[in-house]
Amino acid sequence: MSATNKFRPPVSAASAGTGGARTPQTAAALAAQGITKTFAGAPALAGVDLTVERGSIHALLGGNGSGKSTLIKCLAGVYQADAGTISVHGESVPARQMTPRRAREAGLRFVHQDLAVFDSLTVAENFALDSGFPTNPVQGIRWRELRSRADELLDFYGISARASDPLGSLRPSQKTMVAVARALADQRDSEFILLLDEPTASLPEDESRELMAALRTRADLGQTIVLVTHRFGEIAEVADDVTVFRDGSVAGLGPVAEMTTPVIISMMSGTDPSRPPAPGTPAAGTDTRPAAPPSSSDATGAPVFTGSNLTRHPLAGVDLTVESGEIVGLAGLAGSGRSTVLRAIFGDTSLTSGSMTLDGSPHTPSSPADAIRSGIAFVPEDRHRDAAFLDLAVRENASATVIGRYWRRLVMNLRLERSDTEHLITEHSVRTDGPEAPIGRLSGGNQQKVILARWLRRNPRLLLLDEPTQGVDVMSRQDIYRTLRGLTGQGCGILVASSDLDELVELCDRVLVLVDGRITAEFSPDQAGRGELATAVMSAAPARPAPHEGSQN
Ligand SMILES: Nc1ncnc2c1ncn2[C@@H]1O[C@H](COP(=O)(O)OP(=O)(O)OP(=O)(O)O)[C@@H](O)[C@H]1O
């Protein structure tokens, strides 16, 4: 424990800021040159250059496995690059000598997807975990000082919470901002560079917006920010510049105004990276997605699943039906009960009342294994906690749901399992060294594809999906949507919960809106678009709960 608490807001961030105006005459805040990184002979980065201007938000985009996170980790000193130079405010370090300590001393600050914050601790304690608790030899920890400094920091970063609030009582975007404030706590004059790796991957739309607005405010006050994202809408909203990665190299870069969605996609996919934007091409974030796959509504038929009066906190009596060949969406804010519906159907949580049927027979699963035997598959939201065996090979992860297929008279047919996995890797465009690579070494989006593919192999009767494409790049999403359509063509019913409203509109035959555990509206994307759906989800939102009063001693 340190005798002094270091965290405090920058003293003159506002005066150091550009107020939104760029200062091109100043040197780049961050310049990485010729960064190369190879894993077991496979290049992850092949001579990447990145230049980030002071006080700007610089977005890094690219397909799954294109090298974005590897670059962030090389900058952080988590990985040592094989070659290249990293310069921060003009001070250069050979990239192979970068360590977490040197990165920190240089002023690089990172907020990873796993925020490393603790719900059970107060906001002030979360701050102090990084900067140390203020102490004196007689009284021990000086709680009053800790809280007042934390309150100062919260105020400075515009986070509407108090130092004594348990972190768990904050909304997701506020938690991310606490992680941001903690990372920047000891900076002065906005000289640090903040790097965020997919901060919104698991945030619902309203929360993402709030976080992006907060980051834009920081950048307008002079904060330099690097942002990894798959969400094109965010880029148009907040970024100044964009660098696009493909296969470990920079495929293109430019100011956000020039980086339209078609241009970015062509750079990501390598179809025509040098193509200039056509006149009138919409800016990034505009909906220019490829045409949706044909609706499966013609193929819908008898109910696969019915749920009546499903009740279990927060569900307060949900009725729903999924027909054969139908994709039904569940939209709602965090806490509305979307995931609970899926978990109850999967036997992962029990109902306090209500009834369910599967293909006309009562469905009363006592466990997930029970539900799987009945023909139900579930892709959960938290891949690391609930789905992926990170130390096991892609092959083992991919066959976990169909392992019985490979055992014959106590002998495992490894060759067949391997060749099936190779086929699956190709079919789902998984970027990996092969079936034997540990899944934990794949990029986040590629892990998600393997988890999804694993369940699709069972040809389920009812497929439950919770945030199925989080972290998946825009091109692979289209492949996944096509695969799901293929499944419905075989009579499978699909229930998908997603905070991505574009996804629901594009993919679903019907979308149900959940508010406070009740279905308050039903949409057919044929008749109502994203705007109407967003209005139903947002306007029905209850007033935001104030963070709880904490009970800090
Ligand atoms: N520790 C590691 N060992 C072996 N290979 C790795 C390791 N970390 C990353 N890779 C490989 O490096 C490549 C780039 O991965 P990276 O995580 O940087 O991609 P990304 O652009 O961040 O992808 P995503 O959008 O899916 O998060 C991938 O092929 C990945 O499998």
From TrEMBL:
Molecular function GO terms recorded: ATP binding
Key words, A-Z: ATP-binding, Nucleotide-binding, Repeat, Transport
Q: Does the keyword Metal-binding apply?
A: no
Q: Taking every annotated instance into account, which residue ranges of this chain make up the domain Death?
A: 403-488
Top-level taxonomic group: Bacteria
| Region entry Disordered, spans | 1-22, 267-308
Q: Ranges of Low complexity compositional bias?
A: 281-290
User: Which InterPro entries does the annotation name?
Assistant: AAA+_ATPase (IPR003593), ABC_carbohydrate_import_ATPase (IPR050107), ABC_transporter-like_ATP-bd (IPR003439), ABC_transporter-like_CS (IPR017871), Death_dom (IPR000488), P-loop_NTPase (IPR027417)
User: Which Pfam families has this protein been placed in?
Assistant: ABC_tran
Q: CDD domains of this UniProt entry?
A: ABC_Carb_Monos_I, ABC_Carb_Monos_II
List the SUPFAM superfamilies hit by this protein, alphabetically: P-loop containing nucleoside triphosphate hydrolases
User: The ABC transporter domain covers which part of the protein?
Assistant: 30-272, 299-541
**Which PANTHER family does the entry link to?**
CARBOHYDRATE TRANSPORT ATP-BINDING PROTEIN MG119-RELATED, GALACTOFURANOSE TRANSPORTER ATP-BINDING PROTEIN YTFR
Q: What is this protein called?
A: Sugar ABC transporter ATP-binding protein
Q: Which organism is it from?
A: Arthrobacter gallicola
- What is this organism's lineage? Bacteria, Bacillati, Actinomycetota, Actinomycetes, Micrococcales
